[in-house]
């Protein structure tokens, strides 16, 4: 609507409108903040404390006392160092693949389909459709499709890419495939959001100023959609690095594809709580450092 | 809950109102009385404090100091919903989740008025929109939305109706039409209207009384003709229409007029139309009061003559032609001449004289500004014209 | 409406859309490549969904891996495997309770951070951002080890506690955008029209925030309903639907779980498509009358 553009154009007050400050804010904030302190911050503290515990009591499995046992971390790094590297490599690869698949997809929905709003929303529904069906069942479906006697392996064996003894399930390929597949919507949606807002007149102005198609993409479209790319990569990389379903041997992985999440899960359920906690803390640090660096570099601290 | 509601509007009185925001003062010691039943316009550029004044009256802001009285009752500390005041917002602020009727009866229902529905329909009939009562605001045009916003405010019969640039979002033609409609609705319902705008034409068309506001103060207040014909300050002289202003010393004072030395010429100004009568003063005259002569006119009593000067630009604007005339030692003069004949009276470069009747001049109250820091403190157009002039001079010499 | 007004309106409406509906500047061939690539990607993404739905009709014996023929039995006897239905019921309970609580808490925070200034704004922003930036497995093991340390018996309620925690941030982000885009003049109009602060909130603010709040609630329910990673650490013996699938994965998934997943999927898609279609119809109606 043309007149909408004029709303709030009064600089008289907008510049001056001071935000209110009152007890109401405290009432609104307190319940949620206290809740997060109790269920997010306290557990993190508890995780740190647990990671330094030592076996105690009658040396039964699962009995630990508070201590300051650095050796838990030494053990975690010594035993699982390679797994950390693998976790990082798998997640990074899955993130890059997801970006390569998602960007054209998001561009197609956000820009090409812009003239057809109904099609745009219907295709967008296809992108989020996987959210509506169990994540575990979808992953199991891929397991069946990649099964040793399944269609993909048979086909690849027939054309000679795979040898008769080769298989797919349980390899790095299926785990990375699963990670990529599962997090594509998380990558596509934020990129779509920023491309959908992209004013095409900028692109036309670029063309008017002698930029060819490639330059228009690199110098106009991509920089303008960068906020979406940043949040998409974060929304993919962070959960992928903590995932332990795709790499689990009952799903797409095997003992050769163990990721940090699997270690945390297994140690926890074998009651090696301090070791599980130490791996969790290490994983969190290993994720937060690159994430903070990445966010700072891309200059979008205002993610929330 | 909501005070008393008059049928005829009430006085609004602001006493020493000051509003400070962190970092700047929006309004400084404002005193203002608006009589009941009048259509009052607050006119000023953006940032002059006019919208803040309106929000203070509505109760949407609290004054830092001073008192606000409506119908003699102090409402300074009352909340917005306790004041007999309604606002037509700049962006209309129609509730998008309610129908037009729902919007109009909203205020009546909050006050627990039993006949809310009939009164709302009546108000919609007043603005000729009863047939869209069941629609959502988004389904209406801009002009219709504006009228719904008006109905939503008027239906409450507030003692005071505040209009915050209500026509700003409409295009020119629609704005003219709505100006007339608003005015007729005001006389029909007899409420006190306080209208805030930056559009001088709108203020002059609609209001009985106009107050020109600048930097948080009221510069001048009065009937539109009075403000235009007799501006008291440089700001008013320039904000309300255009003016030719000159600065010089008063050299002599006669019975009815005084003579000011402008670049060696004695220019007369009526004494009662001048705010100051001694020392250095600024005097002025409106461009349409000037007459252009191609030959030196006879000097007559009661007429001021400037010249000779050179026409440096001619622009045709339809009903009139605007001439820019450079008289040595004076700022560039603007002359509006009615287009009584085809074609301009003088071409650029022609030598001309300018005259006006003494009674059309006015003297301003401002202390003359110190020497301007930058020589050519003119608008870009004048600068461009002067540049062209200089260039042509150089070419002539070559 | 006067003719002048109609004419003015026509010019206003024919003004170019602010986003610029100009044809995509990129050449035809490029657009085709992007389109074909996108459709291929979408088609591959649909494979596991189709697989899951198809195998809900499989006449399965012990495991549901090999196709043995079409049957409706799985759909007609969903609760033959009691654990499937029980875990599904648990998921619904957890999802509804967690959604209601998290939506209320998150909406309150969203209003507070947009509308008020307070000390520690940065700290609170970090507190809201961190749960989204922390791998789920760390959230789960942290909460799990806290429950172990405190000696709390884990069950349905601990799952609910965990789900509320990870939902709050998402609710805040979703609702915050809506609060920020709310024209403050609308609430001022409410105050001006004799509504008390409480009436302004219930009759103006809340209805206008509702689309954002509903979107946040749907997102929260979807996250809760499908969560396994965190649930696994805090569930004890209680079983939600994803946990049931995970446990059953090692020995074979009963086809009834495909039935439940397919039914939920179809229901969700129908709701979303219907909402989109009605929004499209409303847009067109607006365009016609507006």
TrEMBL record, chain A:
SUPFAM superfamilies the record matches: MetI-like
Name of the featured protein: ABC transporter permease
Entry-linked Pfam families: BPD_transp_1
Ranges annotated as spanning the membrane: 23-49, 88-110, 122-141, 172-192, 220-240, 272-296
Protein family (similarity comment): Belongs to the binding-protein-dependent transport system permease family. CysTW subfamily.
Top-level taxon: Bacteria
Gene3D superfamilies linked: MetI-like
Localization, UniProt: Cell membrane
Ranges in a coiled coil: none
Membrane topology of this protein: Multi-pass membrane protein
InterPro entries per record: MetI-like (IPR000515), MetI-like_sf (IPR035906)
ABC transmembrane type-1 domain: residues covered: 84-294
Keywords: Cell membrane, Membrane, Transmembrane, Transmembrane helix, Transport
Native organism: Protaetiibacter mangrovi
UniProtKB/TrEMBL annotation, chain B:
Source taxon at top rank: Bacteria
Catalytic activity: ATP + H2O + polyamine-[polyamine-binding protein]Side 1 = ADP + phosphate + polyamineSide 2 + [polyamine-binding protein]Side 1
Keyword Membrane: yes
Keyword Translocase: yes
Gene3D superfamilies: 2.40.50.100, P-loop containing nucleotide triphosphate hydrolases
A single GO molecular function term of this UniProt record: ATP binding
Residues annotated as transmembrane: none
Sequence similarity: Belongs to the ABC transporter superfamily. Spermidine/putrescine importer (TC 3.A.1.11.1) family.
Function: Part of the ABC transporter complex PotABCD involved in spermidine/putrescine import. Responsible for energy coupling to the transport system.
Complexes and interactors: The complex is composed of two ATP-binding proteins (PotA), two transmembrane proteins (PotB and PotC) and a solute-binding protein (PotD).
Name this protein carries in UniProt: Spermidine/putrescine import ATP-binding protein PotA
């Amino acid at each position: 609507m043309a007149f909408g553009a004029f709303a709030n154009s009064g600089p008289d007050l907008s510049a001056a409108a001071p935000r209110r400050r009152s007890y109401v804010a405290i009432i609104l904030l307190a319940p949620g903040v206290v809740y997060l302190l109790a269920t997010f911050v306290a557990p993190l503290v508890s995780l740190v404390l647990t990671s330094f515990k030592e076996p105690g009591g009658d040396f039964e499995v699962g009995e630990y006392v508070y201590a300051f046992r650095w050796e838990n971390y030494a053990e975690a790094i010594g035993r699982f160092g390679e797994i950390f590297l693998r976790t990082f490599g798998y997640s990074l690869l899955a993130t890059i693949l997801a970006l390569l698949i998602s960007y054209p997809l998001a561009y197609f929905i956000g820009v090409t389909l812009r003239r057809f709003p109904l099609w745009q929303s219907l295709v967008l529904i296809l992108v989020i459709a996987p959210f509506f069906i169990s994540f575990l069942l979808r992953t199991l479906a891929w397991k069946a499709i990649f099964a040793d006697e399944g269609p993909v392996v048979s086909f690849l064996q027939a054309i000679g890419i795979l040898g008769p003894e080769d298989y797919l399930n349980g390899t790095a390929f299926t785990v990375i495939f699963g990670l990529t597949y599962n997090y594509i919507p998380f990558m596509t949606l934020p990129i779509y959001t920023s491309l959908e807002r992209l004013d095409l007149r900028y692109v036309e102005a670029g063309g008017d100023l002698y930029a060819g198609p490639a330059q228009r993409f690199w110098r106009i479209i991509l920089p303008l959609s960068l906020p979406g790319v940043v949040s998409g990569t974060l929304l993919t990389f962070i959960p992928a690095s903590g995932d332990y379903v795709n790499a689990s041997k009952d799903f797409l992985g095997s003992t050769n594809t163990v990721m940090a999440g699997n270690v945390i899960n297994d140690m926890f359920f074998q009651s090696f709580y301090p070791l599980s906690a130490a791996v969790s803390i290490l994983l969190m640090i290993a994720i937060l450092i690159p994430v903070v660096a990445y966010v700072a570099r891309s200059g979008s601290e205002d993610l929330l | 809950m909501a005070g008393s509601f008059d049928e005829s509007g009430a006085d609004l009185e602001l006493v020493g109102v000051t509003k400070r925001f962190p970092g700047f003062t929006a309004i400084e010691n404002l005193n203002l009385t608006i009589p009941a039943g009048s259509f009052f316009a607050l006119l000023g550029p953006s940032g002059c404090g006019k919208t803040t004044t309106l929000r203070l009256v509505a109760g949407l802001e609290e004054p830092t100091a001073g008192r606000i009285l409506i119908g003699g009752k102090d409402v300074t500390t009352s909340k917005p919903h306790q004041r007999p005041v309604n606002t037509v917002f700049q962006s209309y602020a129609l509730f998008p989740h309610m129908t037009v009727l729902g919007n109009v009866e909203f205020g009546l229902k909050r006050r627990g008025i039993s006949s809310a529905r009939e009164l709302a329909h009546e108000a919609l009939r007043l603005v000729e929109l009863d047939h869209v009562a069941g629609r959502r605001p988004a389904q209406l045009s801009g002009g219709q939305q504006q009228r719904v916003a008006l109905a939503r405010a008027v239906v409450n019969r507030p003692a005071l109706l505040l209009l915050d640039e209500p026509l700003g979002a409409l295009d020119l033609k629609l704005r003219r039409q709505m100006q007339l409609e608003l005015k007729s609705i005001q006389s029909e319902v007899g409420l006190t209207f306080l209208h805030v705008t930056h559009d001088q034409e709108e203020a002059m068309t609609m209001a009985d009384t106009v107050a020109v506001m600048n930097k948080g103060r009221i510069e001048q207040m009065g009937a539109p003709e009075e403000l235009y014909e007799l501006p008291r300050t440089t700001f008013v002289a320039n904000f309300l229409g255009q003016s030719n202003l000159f600065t010089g010393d008063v050299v002599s004072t006669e019975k009815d007029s005084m003579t000011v030395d402008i670049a060696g010429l004695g220019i007369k100004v009526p004494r009662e139309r001048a705010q100051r009568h001694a020392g250095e003063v600024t005097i002025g005259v409106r461009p349409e009061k000037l007459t252009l002569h191609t030959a030196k006119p006879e000097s007559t009593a009661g007429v001021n003559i400037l010249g000779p000067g050179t026409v440096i630009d001619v622009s045709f604007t339809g009903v009139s032609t605007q001439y820019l005339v450079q008289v040595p030692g004076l700022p560039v003069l603007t002359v509006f001449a009615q287009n009584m004949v085809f074609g301009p009276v003088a071409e650029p470069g022609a030598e001309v004289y300018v005259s006006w009747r003494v009674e059309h001049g006015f003297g301003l109250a401002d202390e003359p500004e110190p020497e301007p820091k930058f020589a050519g403190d003119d608008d870009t157009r004048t600068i461009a014209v002067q540049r062209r002039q200089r260039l042509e001079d150089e070419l002539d010499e070559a | 409406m006067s003719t002048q007004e109609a004419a003015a309106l026509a010019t206003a409406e024919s003004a170019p859309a602010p986003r610029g509906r100009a044809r995509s500047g990129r050449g035809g061939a490029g657009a085709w490549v992007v389109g074909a690539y996108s459709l291929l990607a979408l088609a591959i993404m649909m494979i596991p969904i189709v697989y899951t739905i198809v195998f809900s009709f499989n006449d399965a014996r012990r495991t549901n891996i090999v196709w043995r023929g079409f049957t409706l039995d799985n759909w007609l006897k969903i609760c033959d495997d009691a654990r499937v239905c029980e875990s599904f019921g648990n998921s619904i309970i957890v999802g509804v309770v967690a959604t209601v609580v998290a939506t209320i808490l998150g909406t309150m925070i969203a209003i507070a951070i947009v509308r008020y200034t307070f000390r520690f704004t940065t700290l609170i922003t970090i507190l809201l951002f961190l749960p989204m930036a922390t791998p789920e497995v760390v959230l789960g093991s942290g909460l799990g080890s806290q429950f172990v340390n405190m000696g709390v018996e884990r069950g349905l309620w601990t799952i609910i506690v965990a789900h509320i925690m990870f939902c709050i941030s998402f609710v805040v982000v979703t609702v915050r955008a809506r609060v920020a885009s709310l024209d403050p003049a609308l609430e001022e109009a409410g105050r001006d029209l004799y509504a008390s602060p409480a009436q302004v909130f219930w009759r103006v603010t809340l209805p206008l925030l509702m689309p954002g709040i509903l979107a946040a609630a749907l997102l929260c329910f979807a996250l809760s309903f499908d969560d396994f990673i965190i649930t696994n650490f805090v569930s004890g013996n209680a079983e939600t639907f994803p946990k049931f699938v995970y446990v059953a994965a090692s020995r074979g998934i009963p086809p009834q779980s495909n039935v439940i997943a397919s039914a939920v999927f179809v229901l969700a898609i129908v709701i979303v498509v219907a909402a989109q279609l009605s929004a499209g119809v409303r847009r067109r109606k607006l365009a016609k009358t507006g």
